Amino acid sequence: MATSKLMLDYIYDHEATLAERVYLTQPLGDGLVADFTWGQVLEQSRRMATYLQAQGFEPGSRISILSKNCAHFFMAEIAIWMAGYTTVAIFPTETAETVRYVLEHSGASLLFVGKLDTWEQQVPGVPAGLPCIAFPLAPKTSLKTWDSVMADNKPMPGRPKRNAKDLAMIIYTSGSTGQPKGVMHSFERVTKASEGMMHDMKSRIGQDTENRVMSYLPLAHVFERAWIECTSMVDGKTHVFFAETLDTFVKDLNRARPTSFISVPRLWLKFQQGVFAKMPPKKIDRLLRIPIAGKLVGKKILKGLGLDAALLAGSGSAPIPAELINWYRRLGLNLVEGYAMTEDFAYSHNSTPEINAPGCVGVPLEGVLVRLSEEGEILIKSPGQMVGYYKRPDLDAEVFTEDGYFRTGDRGERRADGLLKITGRVKELFKTSKGKYVSPAPIENKINAHPLVEMSMVSGVGQVSAYALLVLAEDIRPKLNDPAVRKDVEKQLTELLHEVNRDLADYEQLRMFVVAAEPWSIESGLLTPTMKIRRNRIEASVEKNLDTFYASKGAVYWA
Fold first, then answer.
1. Where are the domains of the chain?
2. Domain spanning 266-308+311-425: CATH 3.40.50.12780
3. What's the rounded Cα separation, in Å, for the pair 171 and 185?
4. pTM of the complete model beyond 0.70
5. pLDDT (tens digit, 9 = 90+) per residue, 371-389?
6. The domains spanning 10-162+210-225 and 266-308+311-425 adopt the same CATH topology
7. Which residues of 285-322 are buried (b: 16+ CB within 10 A; e: fewer)?
8. Third-level CATH fold of 10-162+210-225
9. Quick one: residue 441, left, alpha or beta (phi over 0 = left, psi -120 to 50 = alpha)?
């Protein structure tokens, strides 16, 4: 994985040798799409780079992007790099408060505003006087437009260089455990990690296979930024498709027919629940057991999801139930789980065709070193390792060992074949009043495997025993006004509680299930922009009723 080229070098080479090749496909609405070749992408990026450099910002200045995924996000990032600056992307669903925090903490000199659903609520977070440029698909504003910059500026010539140690980007974490932290990544490490990812992906789908991918997970998050954007920039022959809206997602996915596809556990679960809403799980299970019919049924389900051409599918960002991986594999989808963090630029572990097991997150990728501390914490040294936290040298001192390993905060176990299993978060461990530690993640995975459950969270700090909060599956929630349905759901949940407890030590066993009154969402502040649960806020939402629930004898309660 020795790197002689940096990210911009790859991009310039693609411009020279693949100028006519379509790189990005962007839906425009009303069934229209726009294709952008490598030549067209660089033409626009070069014009924007000329404009940015003319503003006189200091070298390395931070330029921010607040946008959903779109072709102009890629173009803007290339322009920022060419002009000598550093990208700071903000999750498109963030509140005005967090938008302001990131812009001010990073010292952003300019903001690109793109596709957004809640721009009017976010505007107050933009500091007065901060220059802004609106992407073509941005909400209607009075801001300077991308197209006007294209018309008024000539393309920046040549192959502007960046140094290996220059900062390519600062990625702000989604804040599941508090204030977002700015993770700094240099061109050298971003490039090394992206080369490793592309090598790993090509080894699975074939060197000569045309790689088609869908970009829809937030580009402000490291998972999408690394495995979709940056790997495509290294590869050059990857065709990136974008989604228009949530309502058109399946249509967009069928347009792309991706050969490789990544997602997060919650979305893999929602895809499954969408299938179950059309055909009962028991019927699907029965059909899949029939050798010939099973293959046809699996292919039909995958075609309906737009994944019938996928040679590789990945899940990351959070633990996924082993049962869910097995279900997709029975359909014929090669779904594997990986493990990485913002701090290693999403380059850490992945399952291989030879070494994999549902419930494990894979083996170290090329160049990655891993060991466990005496407490069982996973320590990682990756080619994609961050430079450090922006303006937080105090945190750097906390998270790195003396010999340069990053303390992940995750607890794990390693098998003899190298497979890593995550057993929970060090900081998520909690004690019941019995003085015993409970690790929530493994228990949540058992619960989440049930078709009635969309999400769960195990808690019980200081209580006599643990309990679990549940969000029921989307297709079940509207039917709960029917007393018969509600009674049946309660019966199934009671059975699930007993089933889960059978496999747990006595001090881990759950006292009860508490069903959330409303689904957890990013908008309500109970999920991060990457759909991870915000434990403290969810716990607070039911705290006032807990004593009553614990004093009663039931197994299932409705919050």
1. 10-162+210-225, 266-308+311-425, 430-558
2. yes
3. 8
4. yes
5. 999 888 999 999 999 999 9
6. yes
7. eebbeeeeebeebbeebbeebbbbebbbbbbbbbbbbb
8. Rossmann fold (3.40.50)
9. alpha
